[in-house]
Design a protein that fits this description.
CATH superfamily of the largest domain: Malonyl-Coenzyme A Acyl Carrier Protein, domain 2
Shape: globular
Number of strands: 10
Number of domains: 2
Number of helices: 13
Length: 317
């Protein structure tokens, strides 16, 4: 997401992670501030269970039905604290699941509708993964173009695509298990480091096509409002402000690549100079160094971080 604090002359951007570095206890920091506590309470009411307690329950943390809406809630909670502490925003972006937090933060969809949609999405993706098994691998030191060429070499008659265009030096590929294995072997030959991801399926690839019907039916049931500020949308890799365009792109989200580097550059080109990662983890903050080296980037993992960001202090995360 993009947060711009006019009093300091900066134009800040807040980014929403699609996953946390760890799930256990991820809601705890956000119980300490009234703005974030309200989000956790609304989420607990919507889900019919205590989201804070669930983040300490191994059985809940083992299910996408809990983890995905809990992550969404933590992302939005961090954003609300940034706003409450005085930060203002010129744009937002979210990586994969984080895009749903961006839609909530920008006022496009209400939190309860986003939570419901994320639950439907998680169930549909799990079923698609069982119907059309696959997996994902990160290619380190490899940009999207080189990753696409590797996929072309390894694909044959199977599914294999670039799923995440994370930075000029990191891409994630997604596809059938046998195609991923061929790609990993080819990467080894080319002295490229390949790291298999611990995921349930080939997300952001055509293997997720069976999930689209249930997800898109729920998307059609939600009223999309004009955003308060532009969203750097994953599928387009560009700033989008039209609500119906956002709806159409979200319908392709689960089978399309996350054009993260392009999204971040679009925010920078629009004038964003400072980027806040709102929610668990600091993966996006570290990626920023590769995408826009001159931009300031900081992870917001607690209300203290948000206060420091709003005041221009260094903060910790």
């Amino acid at each position: 997401m993009s947060d711009g604090t006019e009093t300091t002359g900066t134009r800040n951007t807040a980014l929403f992670p699609g996953q946390g570095s760890q799930f256990e206890g991820m809601a705890d920091p956000w119980t300490e501030h009234s703005a974030s506590r309200a989000i956790l309470d609304e989420t607990s009411s919507s889900m019919g269970l205590d989201v804070v307690a669930g983040c300490h329950d191994p059985s809940a943390l083992a299910t996408t039905e809990f983890v995905q809406p809990a992550l969404l809630a933590c992302d939005v909670a961090a954003f609300r604290v940034l706003e409450a502490e005085g930060s203002s925003f010129v744009g937002v972006a979210g990586h994969s699941l984080g895009e749903f937090a961006a839609l909530v933060a920008a006022g496009v969809v209400p939190l309860d509708a986003a939570l419901d949609l994320v639950v439907v999405r998680g169930v549909a993706m799990q079923r698609a993964s069982e119907e059309r098994p696959g997996t994902m691998t990160a290619l380190l030191g490899v940009g999207p173009d080189d990753a696409a060429r590797l996929c072309d070499e390894a694909r044959r008659d199977d599914v294999l695509v670039v799923a995440n265009e994370n930075s000029p030096a990191q891409s994630v590929i997604s596809g059938s298990v046998i195609a991923i294995e061929r790609a990993e072997a080819l990467a080894k030959e080319q002295k490229v480091r390949a790291v298999r991801l611990q995921v349930a399926g080939a997300f952001h690839s055509p293997l997720m096509e069976p999930a689209r019907a249930a997800i898109n039916e729920r998307i059609d049931a939600i009223a999309f409002a004009p955003p308060r500020f532009p969203i750097a949308e994953n599928v387009a890799g560009a700033l989008v402000s039209d609500p119906e365009e956002l709806r159409a792109l979200l319908k392709r989200h689960v089978v399309s690549p996350v054009k993260w580097a392009s999204s971040v550059r679009a925010l920078a080109d629009a004038g964003a100079t400072s980027f806040f990662e709102a929610g668990p983890g600091d993966v996006l903050t570290r990626l920023m160094k590769r995408i826009v080296p001159d931009a300031a980037a900081r992870a917001i993992g607690s209300p203290e971080d948000a206060r420091a960001a709003a005041s221009g202090g260094t903060g910790g995360s």
